[in-house]
Amino acid sequence: MSTSPSLVIVGAGPRGTGFLERLAANLPELYGDEPLDVHLVDPHPPGPGRIWRTAQSPLLWMNSQAEDVTMFTDESVDLEGPVRPGPTLAEWAGIDGRTFPTRPQQGAYLRWVYERARTALPATVTVHEHRTTALRISGPRDGRQRVWLEGSAVPLLADLVVLTVGHLDAEPDPEQRRLAGFAERHGLVHLPPDFTADTDLTALPAGEPVLVRGFGLAFVDLMVLLTEGRGGRYEGEGDELVYVPSGKEPVLHVGSRRGVPYHSKIGYVLDGERPPLPRFFGTEQTDALLRRTGSIDFRRDVWPLIDKELGWAHYHRLFSTHPERTALAWSDFEKAYEEAPPRGAELAALVAAAVPDPADRLDLDALDHPLDGIRYDSAEALQEGLRDYITQDVTRRHDPAHSSDAAVFAGLLSVYGQLLRLGKRLDPGGWWHGFFSYLASGPPGPRLRQLLALSRAGVVRFLGPQVTVEADEDRGLFRAGSAALPGEWTEARALVEARIPDPTLELSGSPLLRALYEEGTRATAGGLLVVDPVDGRILEHDGRPHPRRFALGPHTTARTGSAFTRPRTGGVAFGQNDVTARTALAFLHDRECRLPAPLSA
């Protein structure tokens, strides 16, 4: 068995690949030409991993345009290590940068990035790929770790372990277990939260109603696979798009808390003057929060700062680019905005006086509850109302006259960077991450036009907001109702939970993460793995960073807001990868960690 220093990376998808790229970039400076064993543990192909594997339907698209996807650092990223530029997906694939690539195309790009990172490692580094699952980690704080693998009685010895496991399955929570039991008793279909591309949809029969709870990106995948995926097709384009059914589609009755799909991707380039960020939620404000001795509450202490920061981005863009739609000099507005308390009557009055058209004002509460208080006389009126809403959203998000929306997107990215600094002191919770995705990570405009066509064809029916789902024991059916149609219910023999599982340690589908949770590794109330926001070291139950265990990705308190990085936007995930890689290499360079420990469980 090799006595060389050993690094085990659990998870070889995009995050593990990004970490490997930073390891290769920093290795000459911090480690030299000494031997090193790097073990990659993942049952799925290195590079694309599970989510972006090339063996999936080409009907499924990325949620980003090809020119907005890169796996490489540039001068905008805050790095101690060297910048190693590389092509965007569009440049690598030779495709139109404004197109939305298929997921197999992205998988091929990620595989190439992985191979390039591996090739960049010197000959003294040996990479071992283990196509299996990591079960648990054992070992003393001050000694080599043991990573136990499925199908092997002998663990991998590791001087350091880095968890980059990405998005994972989850065990069902009590509500899902209750619904699954109901479905089993009555011979119904219940599909719990899952990655839609991996879900067996054959149990959903043609022509039958299906209740769908969730209106985000998992729903979009479901919509595609149950329509085009079953032989349907589209004719025409734009507002004239028509769906021609194959006859194999079920009828999807979809609703959610908001009752509307995520906002369309912005369909133009933000040119001209950009808002200077951060302004009201930056280092000064996060430092002040970190100096507090008490707890930090997201809604009380942080959300007002975020609200004011996003408003700043919005109004800076509006005044600089569309001054004819304002009624106050920018200098006067800027001074008054700066002095006004966040989310108060003074700020609201200032905005109302300075921005005459309500459509030009930013109201985050209204955005989060777009259908609150709206009631419809009939189900058909609800269908028409939702089609009008979606049409207006697609139109606005493709109209540069509303480029303040794109400025808010830039503000959201800035905000995420500051939330990462709060790290172990604050878990924003599921609402914040959902709200971010709703505003900033919605579907491509063409997908929403397809949704409208499916609605007109009767293949998709809208349930509305504040959807409740009941298990009717007497009738042996699922039924769903909405605040928009009080007293009316839709019944079905099938229920699909169209969302990905929450990244909680307690219910994680990863036996390794569950083992860490059961051993007392520190977790937030929302179930995230608590890590040091500086270098990603895992915090133990007593708050101490583990010297030999790191974690990066969506299962941690340092998770970033998007799956991939746009070029020249700072690349927070790249910066995290760089710091963790440099910390790991500096540790491995210490001769003390090279002394082999005796094998024991």
UniProtKB/TrEMBL annotation:
<dbReference type="InterPro" id="IPR052189">
    <property type="entry name" value="L-asp_N-monooxygenase_NS-form"/>
</dbReference>
<dbReference type="Pfam" id="PF13454">
    <property type="entry name" value="NAD_binding_9"/>
</dbReference>
<protein>
    <submittedName>
        <fullName>Adenylate cyclase</fullName>
    </submittedName>
</protein>
<dbReference type="InterPro" id="IPR036188">
    <property type="entry name" value="FAD/NAD-bd_sf"/>
</dbReference>
<feature type="region of interest" description="Disordered">
    <location>
        <begin position="543"/>
        <end position="569"/>
    </location>
</feature>
<feature type="domain" description="FAD-dependent urate hydroxylase HpyO/Asp monooxygenase CreE-like FAD/NAD(P)-binding">
    <location>
        <begin position="8"/>
        <end position="167"/>
    </location>
</feature>
<dbReference type="InterPro" id="IPR038732">
    <property type="entry name" value="HpyO/CreE_NAD-binding"/>
</dbReference>
